Amino acid sequence: MIDDLYSAHILRLAANLPHAGRLPAPDGTGERVAKLCGSKAIVDVALDDQDRISAFAQDIKACALGQAAAGVLGESVIGATLVEIQAARDATLAMLKTGGDGPTGRFEGLRALKQVADYPARHASTLVAIEATLEAVHAALARKALDTRTSLAGAA
User: What structural domains and CATH numbers belong to the chain?
Assistant: First the structure.
């Protein structure tokens, strides 16, 4: 049964990690660790003037499932908004926990991890990259808001 979980498709996704590394000057950084297995993701983002991800980098130290999810994320994240990423995370969580269908749209590739639902100990590692991405976007938005307030205060 566990061999089905680590299918050739999952292993191909895990081997393809788009945007590996770190950004030299990110707008925001997020870091998440799956406590049960130690899978870790550090994600850097830059946002454009419409708060969409314009640059993305990820440093992933995870099992094949975490790497596969990060691979799907990396393929689709440029141009994504906070709302799209939250929806993908929520749909992935529902897929893993309650039998949901999984994400649609740009992050539909995460559906390849549907079989992980049968392995609760692997849920956190599957979500580690997307959670780190959400944290990075929140940090970038907070920094942007602070910069705006600082600019406005300096102009007054």
Answer: 2-155 (3.90.1010.10)
pTM attached to this predicted model = 0.90
- Cα 123 to Cα 36: distance, rounded to the nearest angstrom: 10
pLDDT at 155 over 70: no
3-state secondary structure the chain: CHHHHCCHHHHHHHHCCCCECCCCCCCEEEEEECCCCCCEEEEEEEECCCCCEEEEEEEEECCHHHHHHHHHHHHHCCCCCHHHHHHHHHHHHHHHHHCCCCCCHHHHHHHHHHHHHHCHHHHHHHHHHHHHHHHHHHHHHHHHHHHHHHHHHHHC
| 39 strand-pairing partners | none
Decide if 55 contacts 143 (C-beta within 8 A). Answer: no
The rounded distance, in Å, linking the Cα atoms of 37 and 34 is 6
114-151 per-position pLDDT tens digit: 999 998 988 999 999 999 999 999 999 999 988 776 76
